[in-house]
Amino acid sequence: SDDQTDWGSIWIGSVVCFLTATQFSIYFSSLWPYLLQLDDTSTENFFGVIAAVYSLGQAVSSPIFGFWSNRIKQTKMPTIVGISLAAFGNVLYIMLPLNIITPKYMMMVSRAVMGTGGGIIALLRTSAVTASTAKDRARAISLNTGAFSLGLTLGPALQIFFTPLSYPGIQLFGNIRLNLYTGPAISGLVANAICLALLHFKYRDSTVGLHKVAKMENESHERFFALPKFDWIAAAVCIFTRFAQMFVVTNLETIGSPLSMTMFAWDRETSVFYNSLMHGAFSIVGFIIYSANTIFNFGPKMNHRLSCVIGLLIIIAFHLLTYPWPFLTSKIKYQEESWMNGTEPVGCRRTFEWCEYTPQINVYVYMISYSLMVSTAFALISVSMNTVYSVIIGPRNQGTMQGILIFIGSCARLTGPIVVASLFSHSGPGIPWIIEIVISLIGVVLWLVFYGRLVPLKMGESLTAGDRYRNKHGMVYKF
């Protein structure tokens, strides 16, 4: 029926969202070790660029996919094209050992192509709105957002399944191999095939959520039925929170391998294994929170504004716990000058002078606090901030405003790795940690200062006599 939420399409869109997000993040644990394997002269700065180009591609393609979708009045075809681009990026990544062009530059191109395909996320989130009735909209958005966020956190953990393959791994054909580095791209191709099959055979565009809006706008007294304008200040607080969330989490994922290899003297395979293990615990915590929210529908019972503040405070607490405080006594080990007995040199690069005066943070504190604290904070913010944001902006503005939210998240993922990788190379984790504490603290202050404005958009039918609101025709008074 046209009056019922199209849960089939919403579930398919959420699955595609999950698999797209997983592809973005599954590379984080092995990207840096693989770059060193292909070219041992690569720097952390160049790695930051490789990590950022995915988000650059996504930031550029998101509005293009949105414009195309609006023109043809559907999301199915643009989404299929985006998935196909991601598949092509995965093929390029698998072909890195063929040396068609310098491997590190081909790695950068493959990630940029995958990111361009990732621009479909805004379309999938918008489709959750257009396919749901007003009654089901919060749950539909929560399902879509949870799927994306879970994919983002689960991706790096999946790397652990490829670790036993080691390197160079199993020969498939020619110089193409399945190993702990190419495993993510090969699994990505399988995910792309699943997405394309679901979209082609099962997915349909639905406009259930727009039906009543369109009917109201055709009334003769349009001035009195037009939707109120939402509070831009309240929306901006949520948008900044998304920037802070993605800036912090992407930075931690990006420099996770360089940090652990430098700070804890792990070799490449050990780094891939333990970083995957941490992300596994991270994703389990996220899965519990997202599943509980979807199954038990905690939304109406939660104070989402307070949950966002708590999430940001947990991020600050993590950084304070893992900061290289001067009173810590453990020293960072420098790499040996030459390879001994054919083994890989481990520890801090000789060019990193900061290792001399920066204490080593405790490996167990780092692993446990990252797995439990950052995961809880990420899930809390994802669920609560998106719920607050969706009710602030109202049903009519979801398409454009969800696109802005995705764009800002992409900007955070674009700028964060470049800035933080450079600062890490120059001065270690201290300054990046301070930056992330300050950004999170600004978020806490904004939620507390504008707490009273971060409320649902009041629709005309919910107003009482004497209330007033502004819409596109000017000020409207309720009598």
UniProtKB/TrEMBL annotation:
The chain crosses the membrane at residues 7-26, 46-68, 80-102, 108-128, 140-161, 181-201, 232-252, 272-292, 304-325, 367-392, 404-424, 430-450. The keyword Metal-binding does not apply. It is found in: Endomembrane system. Keywords: Membrane, Transmembrane, Transmembrane helix, Transport. The keyword Ribonucleoprotein does not apply. One of its GO terms (cellular component) is endomembrane system. This is Membrane transporter.
